[in-house]
Design goal:
single chain, mainly beta, Sulfite Oxidase, Chain A, domain 2, Immunoglobulin-like, 2 domains, five-stranded antiparallel beta sheet, binds the ligand Nc1nc2c(c(=O)[nH]1)N[C@H]1C(S)=C(S)[C@@H](COP(=O)(O)O)O[C@H]1N2, binds molybdenum atom
């Protein structure tokens, strides 16, 4: 009876807000490398958009030689590319910043991973060309609404510098895990920008506009900016690449265990290169041990790691995990605090009690 399907308990999304829908992945209960669409985190600024996908067309205009409108059929007919990659919200782990910062109070699950498939943006731009003065490409989403800082309506729009837009791994995606892209994740077309925090991966693309200057829309020039100071905007920088990071999935924070041998496991990821090392500490960071990487370390994807822990001594322990990537980036001991709470990547830390 105990193992009958009726009694199988499955994890759910963790609800942060209902409208717009913001829910996180139960990341501690993901033990594979592919997150099912049902458990993929959802992050929206506005209501879901309403549009008719049967007449869907994608215009590319602005500073191009030949403005062009692509049909979905055309886009599906171009050579496709599938990439396993982490999408991580730049607000992931925001609730851990001290002092606390305003914004969605994400725990550790504003991230997921799966297989994204679509056409390189680069191939579409071959048909339009780019003028010499082209600087950035703006991606406008179908969704829109008012922001709390103005009563004007805005679409969710963001831009990419031409160089990143031409990276063959930057794709216009129409499939997730070998199925049509789910509506909530941007059907029929979403941008996927590997290695960058997920705000760059604009869902429900309405049109693309090539511009000859820096885009200043509020989701680029107000939000998704690191502001190091509380009082002023000095030294602000744009949020782009995913920081090297790791999360301990098991045991759980504040779990009580009996003495015994345990497998500590988790994930590590980065937007720059690949993960090279994950280390673990059982003594608040005094001594570190190298973990075994369970899956192969690929660009854009998370790597799973484990460490066998002989917990024979009773007491309270602080377990920490620290990842390093091939660019030599290492998770810092303390988070890099910023006013809007982006890019949290301090060494991951949990407490357990052995009794
Ligand atoms: N059109 C549109 N694209 C968007 C957003 C949005 O609100 N509207 N949110 C962005 C942010 S901040 C994140 S973290 C990811 C979330 O993607 P998901 O909902 O598919 O997980 O989408 C990005 N793209
Ligand atoms: Mo996000």
């Amino acid at each position: 009876m105990e193992n009958s399907p009726r009694n199988t308990v499955r994890p759910y999304l963790i609800t942060k807000k209902l409208v717009p829908e913001n829910q996180e992945t139960p990341i501690h209960f993901q033990n594979g490398d592919i997150v099912n669409e049902k458990l993929f985190f959802r992050r929206n600024h506005f209501h879901y958009p309403k549009f008719t996908s049967s007449f869907y067309l994608l215009p590319i205009e602005g500073f191009v030689y030949t403005p062009k409108v692509f049909s979905l059929q055309e886009i599906y007919s171009f050579p496709a590319k599938a990439i396993r990659l982490v999408l991580e919200c730049s607000g992931n782990k925001r609730e851990l910043f001290e002092p606390n910062v305003f914004g969605e109070q994400w725990g550790k699950g504003a991230m997921s991973q799966g297989i994204w498939k679509g056409v390189s943006l680069r191939s579409l731009l071959q048909y339009t060309g780019l003028l010499d003065t082209a600087k950035e490409i703006v991606f406008e989403g179908y969704d829109y609404g008012a922001r709390s800082d103005s009563n004007q309506f805005h679409h969710f729009s963001r831009s990419l510098p031409i160089e990143k837009a031409l990276d063959p791994d930057t794709i216009l995606d129409y499939e997730y895990n070998h199925h049509p892209l789910p509506f909530k994740h941007g059907f029929p077309l979403r941008l996927i920008v590997p290695g960058w925090y997920a705000m760059a991966s604009v869902k429900w693309i309405k049109k693309m506009i090539v511009i000859d200057q820096e885009f200043k829309g509020p989701f680029q020039a107000v939000d998704y900016v690191y502001y190091p100071n509380t009082e002023n905007d000095h030294q602000k920088t744009l949020v782009t690449s995913i920081h090297v990071n790791s999360t301990i999935q098991s045991p759980l924070n504040m779990q009580t265990l009996n003495t015994g041998v345990y497998e500590i496991n988790g994930i590590a990821w980065t937007g720059t290169g690949q993960i090279t090392t994950v280390e673990i500490s059982m003594d608040e960071g005094l001594t570190w041990h190298t973990c075994e990487l369970v899956s192969s370390s690929e660009k854009y994807a998370w790597v799973r790691w484990k460490y066998i822990w002989d917990a024979h001594k009773k007491g309270e322990y602080t377990i920490k995990s620290k990842a390093t990537d091939s660019f030599g980036n290492i998770q810092p001991l303390d988070p890099i605090w910023n006013r809007k709470g982006y890019g949290y990547n301090a060494i991951d830390s949990i407490k357990v009690k052995i009794e």
